[in-house]
């Protein structure tokens, strides 16, 4: 089986798993992988639970559609991540409920939206900057993501949702799932006196 065939099947398996667990809804959310000769991307207007490996969009390195259905209208988010992160092999973007809820909170630190609640969050996601809100389709959103993507594997789009890159599809999936769980914990802890990891504990994890 070729690397591209394996990648197509892995994207569809992940999409089905994400959809079945209610991590994104309707036709929201999109997944992509880098190939030796371009990118594979989930198509526009298709639920992640109903992906067909043969119909994924295949894009040239410059973003031109080579084969398959038209890519997600949010393909620019993925390309911004790949172009700024040479190590990114996969990108996942979801409208996962708790992450979206956190993306709407007032008075967060835009440099790092979520506190260090658990070690796994710190190790898999690290810091999470907030990208300012832009209407869908506004090219300024791509520029804003591009500005942060070089330094961060995960960003949170204000009033929208997370975009996470990984060195593999499973790494990107694990990170966005950890982010969603941490967003849920953050909301659960709201109003409770909480003991977050200390700065020294976070530093120790970052040096691992
Ligand atoms: Zn979106």
From TrEMBL:
Keyword Nucleus included in the entry's annotation: no
Pfam families: Aldolase_II
Reactions catalysed: 3-dehydro-4-O-phospho-D-erythronate + H(+) = dihydroxyacetone phosphate + CO2; 3-dehydro-4-O-phospho-L-erythronate + H(+) = dihydroxyacetone phosphate + CO2
BP GO annotations: pentose catabolic process
Keyword set includes Zinc-finger: no
Alphabetical keyword list: Carbohydrate metabolism, Lyase, Metal-binding, Zinc
Organism whose genome encodes this protein: Aliidongia dinghuensis
Protein task: Catalyzes the decarboxylation of 3-oxo-tetronate 4-phosphate to dihydroxyacetone phosphate (DHAP) and CO(2).
Span of domain Class II aldolase/adducin N-terminal: 9-187
Entry-linked InterPro entries: Aldolase_class_II_sugar_metab (IPR050197), Aldolase_II/adducin_N (IPR001303), Aldolase_II/adducin_N_sf (IPR036409), OtnC (IPR050013)
Names of the cofactor(s): Zn(2+)
GO molecular function: aldehyde-lyase activity; metal ion binding
Catalytic class of the enzyme: lyase
Family affiliation: Belongs to the aldolase class II family. AraD/FucA subfamily.
Cross-referenced NCBIfam families: OxoTetrPhDc (NF043034), PRK08130.1 (NF006000)
EC number in record: 4.1.1.104
Protein name (database record): 3-oxo-tetronate 4-phosphate decarboxylase
GO cellular component, one term: cytosol
SMART domains named in the record: Aldolase_II
């Amino acid at each position: 089986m070729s690397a591209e065939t394996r990648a197509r099947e892995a994207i569809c398996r992940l999409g089905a798993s994400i959809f079945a667990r209610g991590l994104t809804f309707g036709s929201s959310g999109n997944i992509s992988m880098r190939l030796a000769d371009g990118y594979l991307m989930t198509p526009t207007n298709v639920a992640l639970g109903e992906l067909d490996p043969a119909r994924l969009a295949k894009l040239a390195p410059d973003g031109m559609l080579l084969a398959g259905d038209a890519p997600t209208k949010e393909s620019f988010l993925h390309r911004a991540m790949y172009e700024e992160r040479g190590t990114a092999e996969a990108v996942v973007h979801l409208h996962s409920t708790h992450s979206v809820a956190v993306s709407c909170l007032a008075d967060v630190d835009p440099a790092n939206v979520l506190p260090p609640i658990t070690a796994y969050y710190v190790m898999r996601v690290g810091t999470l900057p907030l990208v300012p809100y832009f209407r869908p389709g506004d090219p300024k959103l791509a520029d804003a993501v591009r500005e942060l993507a070089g330094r961060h594997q995960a960003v949170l789009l204000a009033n929208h949702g997370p975009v996470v890159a990984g060195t593999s599809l499973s790494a990107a999936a694990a990170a966005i799932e950890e982010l969603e769980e941490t967003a849920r914990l953050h909301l659960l802890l709201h109003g409770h006196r909480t003991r977050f990891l200390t700065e020294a504990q976070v530093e120790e994890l970052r040096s691992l």
